[in-house]
Amino acid sequence: MLRLRMLVWIALLGVTASPTIQAALLYPESDTYGQSNNSGPYGSSTILALKYSEPGDTLYSRKTWIRYDLSDLVVADFTNPSLNLPMIESGLGTDATGNWTFHVYGLTDESLDSWSEASLLWNTAPANVTGSGTAVDPTKTVSLGTFTVSGKGYTGSSTTYTISGAALQSFLAADTNQRVTFIVTRDTQAPNATVNYAHALASREHGTVAPASLVLPSAVLGPPTYYAHEGFSYDTGDLNNRAGGLGWNSPWTATSANESVIAPALPLSYAQGYGLVEGGDRALAITGNTDPTLASRTLRRTWSANEVYISFLLRWAQGSVGQNDFVAIWLGNSNGPSIGVKGNEDTADPNRLDFFTRLSGSGTARYAGNITDDSTFFIIGRLVKGGSGNYETYELWVNPNFENDTIPDVIATGNAGFSSFTTVGLRSVNLDAGELVIVDELRLGTSWTDVFPQNMAIPEPATLGLLGLGVAALARRASARRRSRGC
Question: How far is it, in rounded angstroms, from Cα 313 to Cα 455?
């Protein structure tokens, strides 16, 4: 986020950079196929099977889904793209006499981009027309092109077929969620049960042939981006199976009895100095007890950064905080690093502190802040690796000053037991009837400004000269601050 803002200011000041441009080469983050008898899933297969079965057969048609993550593009220029598809031996069937045409589609319904290769089946695959061996839903897809092969479609170990052109470029340019899904089908139907071969592409699990690649000649790849955001901007109702936000690999799995998306009468927000967090007209309401998991969701990639920041807004909207009233967000698993509310430091004294952080379920909790009314609180946590290589420190800020990213309110130490994680979840325990907690604007990142957005208006052109000096000073100060704490 800070890097992006600096690039914006540089552009405004008329300073140009000339990086060496080389083609961005992307491999799938997920790929799999579905089979018309709804068997599977096939996410761990080394092949991506393709078949439009002979008339009368409803069991063995196959279609393929391939998804790419665009979030690591620091220059997202989609000029002259190409999708390269390596065809290999499938080992499925024998006779492939004749010519065979294949069709590539782009998934335009971005709400369906969070499919998982570990669970995708024919009957649940995005935009699949389950009663057809070749069709996809035209209201949720766009045609990107076709290619034709002879026989099994490969010589040697593989042969690559390429889709390119204006339709592909337009599809990529229209993306808004930094993920793109391609669907590949075989348009040519097997004429009879004797000509029974199923074609195949190499999957990302293939050991010797590289999988399908997306090549962007004018784009620029940066280092892996670690960022996730959930604003709960859904229609009101159950959170389960909702799939918005950024940085996630799956929809939410949630318990409908104890959570729901609501439209709070007063939206949650927090402003301090240059920092501004606005929750909008939707948030997550939590009631009752869901031990160990109220809701959970997997991240787009495995997080293994040396330091991880998390932030969220919280309001105790109804009821009073009692002993060990517990609402927390955990990382990795429900016994992993947690941050949130553990009422009155687990005592009966209402004057004790309420917000906590800890490295594990059995680890020592540290407390800060006191909830006495239905004010909105803004919480930031910073999880840091230690000498063991695992996460060993969890810092907590309650309603922080935007500029104070070096001095937390409290620090918990211990050992999380792991050095990476892929899952984020919420947990609630000991909430009495009538108690209602609202959570909003969940963010994860690797810097303070990832999780505490900066509110800074673009200045008038006449002030840009002076601003340039200020930006340079701010960059030097931020750099020095992070060096001083060993980041």
Answer: 17
